[in-house]
From TrEMBL:
The keyword Iron does not apply. Residues 1-27 are annotated as: Disordered. One of its GO terms (molecular function) is oxoglutarate dehydrogenase (succinyl-transferring) activity. This is 2-oxoglutarate dehydrogenase E1 component.
Length: 943
């Protein structure tokens, strides 16, 4: 998709554009008029075929009339159906399996007999330009079809509805000068790359016996193929390639494609760190690590990066796509998508089995997520860990999922490195031309087990018996080049000796190698750093606005262009906003958020918000996009601001894929506030892998800082389990080593400040915010204009809204989020004068120092209560319990432990009955304020 959209409607007739309505409802749906024999489907109309054959016969000096013309037309019709069948199904008879174990009988419809031509090889038929033939014998035509569609490359492309795309692939495949052809020098370069791949694995196996390396053994043809992507991509304008891949062959790609120094990898094999000792971090196994480098082909330099990944095999996919999108934005490449190319390398079992693969395909043509096409390379080992394909998928190929977005698929025999390289060359050309995803399915094998210590013959004895006697790719290819006269007997051995000597030299150098710098604050990250101190680094950040900017943003947010007809309810919303700015009072959550977004854009930052229904907001609160009620034109007020860029996208209905995409975007661009919003907080469950493996641990494992913000609607209003809890407890359980920030904020101004703080500090940490639902319009959850300007800033704890003298306080109720207002309203109704309610707005890093200072000011304090809406086994209780005790101790209240007031333990996050919810809510508030024990409706030990 070269632009921001792509239409998949079928194209019928001679017209190039999509036709309205379903194909079966149109009278001409069988008569797709195609030029140059694209498959002459007009042949389905006997009259058209007779005319075509008669004209061709006349031009060729053939005398055809009457029955002869009728028969010639029928012969041409059947010949064209033969051609079409090969174009659709020829891949089923292609020579793809290097081991020859896959039973691939020629389907009947790919035989001459299946089309009524048995014994008629010498019959001459008219085919209108197919393979350059006008008139051709059936035998010649059949031979050309078999050679083209049933060789070492099998092409699936007839599921694509776009006529231009089919023609493009067909022309490249069927035209002799476009098919697999390389110069002698090109063939030598391919052989050299294959040998590097093989000898590298052999060297590692010899030097590090039994050590896991997840070698590429059996799939070495991928090395020259990926180099072809760099070379031909560079010629077409690619200046940056972003790779993502799992374990298989990763170390080989790092060394022989990414040019990571061999000595560095050997150093890691010997137990050394990938980073200097003083950097810190936990590190990760070597086959999870990434790198970045530059390589030059034909005088064109291409920057490449391999994104680090966890053992969740395909989880890195959306991260790569998000990073690619960000780099395209940075390079001003979002219209053509020429300069930045995402490449994803998959295993066959994972490609077929992991749902995230489809989620990424689903993103491929969506506005805001389109990267102009991703090149997918499947290392098809024809086996998972120990699982055979028939148990690993329900489709013939692992790549069948790609048909859902009409991506073309090139199946190729991994024992033919020229064929694999050709496939990559064609793939990059297709992607450059049409801006769409394409898949290369390289059939190969895994010479050893899942890892080098595994015994695969336990479960696949026949396959591994064949593998044991199967010659290596370099042997097959060098023999072929020897036979062609491209190389002599000593050429391959010379390459092997030369490369092995280099590896030995680097092996010795690895013993004294010491990494001298980490690579995490270069490029666009220059000027940012790791916070020197987790506590003080978060203070004194100037996030307030000047009055002039504040007023200017108010006008932007409330001015409706004359040519936009907005919804009447939105008109009332904007009237209320104008009143806020006129009076300086009553600013709600959405307005505080918009002020944060607008001010950052005005200061030159980017702001990107995505999620399900984020434009309007799940709760009709945001209205970042105004829709004209007459013609549905869109107007985005914040996008009219100068200096920075504001983007808001309603995402596809995906959590895993979209959150991974936004993490990747934030990884590449620390100068954009990147936010992902869940429709309801608990929906983040669908993206738990991204949260656990990337957001919470990516910095400590891989030294990859990230400033992504998660907005997770949270609050108990009796709407059932999934619409109540964002699973706060899960995020708190992940907190350690100053890795993320977790907030549960209660005022629009504090939300405004935390968003601005996220960008204005000299470091980046992921930020998780439990955003409200009912508080979006709660009369107490408002802020005044003075809280956004002057010397205001984010408050990690918020004092009581009611002024109570510190010396009067006997009971201190600590809480976070919406329950604070329930507590305040009930406390004031009961006339309690010795109860203070303090909100913990930031739960991690826990504000122990300011909390201790607050407690110290209460000389007569007798009891500290932690109140929460969530069940006792959920929420923040088990996280804050000892931290509150430590703060009390620091305040001179030794031995004062908080007690709990909240719901009883529960397997479900919340009840689905509004009446039961209300009883529980009233009970936990009652307990927290010391008015009663709450009975069975809630749990408390604060009496």
């Amino acid at each position: 998709m070269g632009n921001e959209s792509h239409d998949f409607l079928p194209e019928l007739g001679a017209q190039e554009g999509p036709q309205p309505g379903p194909s079966w409802a149109r009278p001409n749906w069988l008569n797709e008029v195609v030029e140059s024999g694209e498959d002459l489907v007009q042949a389905l109309d006997p009259t058209q075929m007779r005319l075509a054959v008669a004209q061709a016969a006349k031009s060729a000096g053939k005398q055809l009339d009457g029955k002869a013309l009728e028969k010639a037309s029928d012969d041409s019709n059947r010949a064209m159906m033969l051609v079409r069948t090969f174009r659709v199904r020829g891949h089923l008879a292609a020579d793809l399996d290097p081991l020859g174990l896959t039973l691939r009988e020629i389907p009947e419809d790919l035989t001459l007999a299946g089309h009524g031509f048995e014994g008629e090889e010498n019959l001459e038929v008219f085919v209108g330009g197919v393979f350059g033939f006008g008139w051709v014998t059936i035998g010649e035509l059949y031979s050309a079809l078999r050679q083209t569609y049933c060789g070492k490359v099998g092409l699936e492309y007839m599921h694509i509805s776009d006529l231009k795309e089919r023609r493009f692939l067909q022309d490249r495949f069927e035209t002799p000068e476009e098919t697999i052809q390389f110069t002698d020098e090109g063939k030598k370069a391919i052989l050299a790359a294959v040998i590097r791949g093989e000898q590298y694995e052999k060297f590692l196996g010899k030097k590090y016996v039994g050590t896991k390396r997840f070698g590429l053994d059996g799939g070495e043809s991928m090395i020259p193929a990926l180099e072809a992507v760099i070379k031909y991509g560079g010629q077409m304008g690619v200046r940056e390639i972003i790779y993502g891949m799992a374990h298989r062959g990763r170390l080989n790609v790092l060394a022989n494609v990414m040019a990571k120094p061999y000595k560095v990898i050997f150093h890691e094999f010997q137990g050394g760190s990938a980073n200097p000792d003083d950097v810190g971090g936990s590190g990760d196994v070597k086959y999870h690590l990434g790198t970045s480098t530059d390589r030059e082909f034909d005088g064109i330099s291409v920057h490449m990066s391999l994104v680090p990944n966890p053992s969740h095999l395909e989880a890195v996919n959306p991260v790569v796509l998000g990073k690619a999108r960000a780099q395209q934005a940075i390079r001003d490449d979002l219209k053509k998508h020429e300069q930045v190319l995402p490449v994803l390398i998959h295993g066959d079992a994972a490609f077929a089995g992991q749902g995230i693969v489809w989620e990424c395909f689903g993103l491929s043509g969506i506005r805001g997520y389109n990267t102009g096409g991703c090149l997918h390379f499947v290392i098809n080992n024809q086996i998972g860990f120990t699982t055979s394909p028939k148990f690993a998928r329900s489709s013939p190929y692992p790549s069948d999922v790609a048909k859902g977005v009409q991506a073309p698929i090139l199946h190729v025999n991994g024992d033919d490195p020229e064929a694999v390289t050709f496939a990559c060359k064609l793939a990059i050309e297709y992607r450059h031309t049409f801006g769409r995803d394409i898949v290369i399915d390289m059939w190969c094998y895994r010479r050893f087990g899942h890892n080098e210590g595994d015994e695969p013959s336990f479960t696949q004895p026949l396959m591994y018996k064949e593998i044991g006697q199967h010659p290596k790719v370099s042997k097959l290819y060098s023999d072929r080049l020897l036979q062609e006269g491209v190389i002599d007997d000593a050429y391959a051995d010379g390459l092997i000796d030369e490369f092995t000597a280099r590896l030995e030299e680097d092996f010795e150098a690895a013993k004294s190698y010491k990494p001298n710098e980490a690579d995490w604050f270069g490029g666009r990250w220059a000027g940012l750093s790791k916070p020197a101190d987790p506590e003080t680094a978060r203070r004194n950040v100037d996030t307030a606005l000047g009055k002039k900017l504040f007023d200017s943003l108010g006008r932007t947010l409330t001015t409706v262009p004359e040519d936009i007809q907005i919804h009447k309810t939105l008109g009332r919303v904007l009237d209320a906003k104008r009143k806020m700015f006129e009076t300086g009072e009553g600013f709600d959550w959405a307005t505080g958020e918009a002020l944060a977004f607008g001010s950052l854009v005005t200061e030159g930052y980017g702001v990107r918000l995505s999620g399900q229904d984020s434009g309007r907001g799940t709760f009709s609160q945001r209205h970042a996009i105004w829709t004209d009620q007459n013609d549905e034109r869109k107007y985005v007020p914040l996008a009219t601001l100068p200096h920075g860029k504001f983007e808001v996208y309603d995402s596809i209905l995906s959590e895993y894929g979209v959150l991974g995409f936004e993490y990747g975007f934030a990884m590449a661009d620390p100068k954009t506030l990147v936010m992902w919003e869940a429709q309801f907080g608990d929906f983040a469950n669908g993206a738990q892998i991204m949260i656990d493996q990337f957001i919470a641990s990516g910095e400590v494992k891989w030294l990859r800082a990230n400033g992504l913000v998660l907005l997770l609607p949270h609050g108990y209003e009796g709407q059932g389990p999934e619409h109540s809890s964002a699973r706060l407890e899960r995020f708190l359980q992940l907190c350690a080593n100053d890795n993320i920030q977790v907030c549960n904020i209660t005022t629009p101004a504090n939300y405004f400040h935390v968003l601005r703080r996220q960008m204005l500090r000299p470091f980046r940490k992921p930020l998780v915010i439990m955003t409200p639902k009912s508080l979006l319009r709660h009369p107490l959850a408002k802020s005044d204009a003075r809280e956004f300007v002057g010397d205001t800033h984010f408050m990690r704890i918020k004092s009581d809204m009611k002024e109570i003298a510190d010396e009067k306080v006997k009971r201190l109720v600590l809480c976070s989020g919406k329950v604070a207002y329930d507590l305040m309203e009930r406390r004031d109704k009961e006339g309690l004068e010795d109860v203070s309610i303090v909100r913990i707005e930031q739960l991690y890093p826990f504000p122990g120092e300011p909390l201790a200072a607050r407690i110290e000011r209460m000389p007569n304090l007798e009891q500290i209560v932690w109140c929460q809406e969530e069940p006792k086994n959920n929420g923040a209780w088990f996280f804050v319990d000892r931290l509150i005790e430590e703060a009390a101790s620091a305040a001179g209240k030794d031995g004062m432990r908080p007690c709990y007031a909240g719901r009883e333990v529960a397997a479900s996050p919340a009840t689905g009955f509004a009446s039961r919810h209300q009883v529980q809510q009233e009970a936990l508030v009652t307990i927290a304020l010391g008015l009663a024990d709450g009975g069975a409706a809630a749990r408390g030990d604060c009496t």
